[in-house]
Amino acid sequence: MASPSTMTRSSADIATVDYTRPSPASAALARLVWRRRIAKASRWLHIYGSMGSLAIVLFFAVTGLTLNHQDWFANQSITTDRHGTVNSTWVHGTDPAAVDKLQVVEYLRASAGVRGALADFRIDDTQCDLDFKGPGYQAAVIIDRATGRFDVTESRMGFAAVINDLHKGRDTGDGWRVVIDVAAGLLVCISLTGLMLLYFVHKYRLAGVILAGTGALASYLVYVVWVP
Fold it and tell me: Is residue 193's pLDDT more than 50?
């Protein structure tokens, strides 16, 4: 039979056991659960991010090719000249501030078929010079302030020029800039979630990392060796 002192020490030992600290097995199980959750979330983001951005990523891939070979589409540009007259009271007078810019621009759009965004409106003593620009499009207008007569030189550079300007975000407006930002964010998301998925695939992790590093190193070497 155990002595009272032994029973007292055993009770004290039991009383000091820390039941709040997880056992190694339960900690390992918790880590495994979190790894599976992260892998599942990464897979979901990667798949649906890829599908959601498929069209825009494909667009930027194709236009990257057309942009790099603009000489393939060099003969698509069409230039036309048009003439007409605006109300001389809109542009006449000695004060440049008195020129009715809104009326002039709206009239040119309606009567001369000018499109694109107004990029510049210059006024001097004898004439007004206007520039309209859009993707693959440019129109230059000269207006005689004394008579109101105008000359329009319009250039349409073709479909390839349109998609190339969309790729670069040139003369596309704020709305398309948002599209470019969203596309860039989706590409970053796809890339990062792809790396995270690779981390959880032990069989191909090392080979994938080596391949990714090789691609990055090859791009850098091309830049160092061949880019002037």
Answer: yes
**Counted domains in the chain:** 2
In tens, the pLDDT along 88-103 reads: 999 987 778 889 999 9
pLDDT for the residue 18? 53
Structure tokens at 16: 């000091």
User: What does the pLDDT average to over 34-38?
Assistant: 82
List, in order, residues 6 or more apart from 142 with CB less than 8 Å away.
127, 128, 129, 150, 151
Instruction: Please count the other Cβ atoms lying within 10 Å of the Cβ belonging to residue 158.
Output: 15
The answer to whether residue 56 sits within a structural domain is yes
48/25 Cα distance (integer angstroms): 35
Contact 72, 160 (CB under 8 A): yes
Q: What is the C-alpha separation between 200 and 20, in angstroms, rounded?
A: 30
- pTM over 0.90, yes/no: no
Distant-in-sequence contacts of 184-191, Cβ < 8 A, 24+ apart: 186/49, 186/52, 186/53, 186/56, 186/57, 187/53, 187/57, 189/45, 189/49, 190/46, 190/49, 190/50, 190/53, 190/57
For residue 130, give the 3-state DSSP assignment. Answer: strand
* 12 confidence band (pLDDT: 50, 70, 90): very low
Q: Decide if 91 is inside a domain.
A: yes
Give the residue from 108, 133, 156 where a domain finishes: 156
Amino acid at 222: V
Query: Which domain range does residue 94 map to?
Result: 78-156
Same domain (yes/no): 86, 195: no
Which pLDDT score, from 0 to 100, does residue 19 have?
A: 53
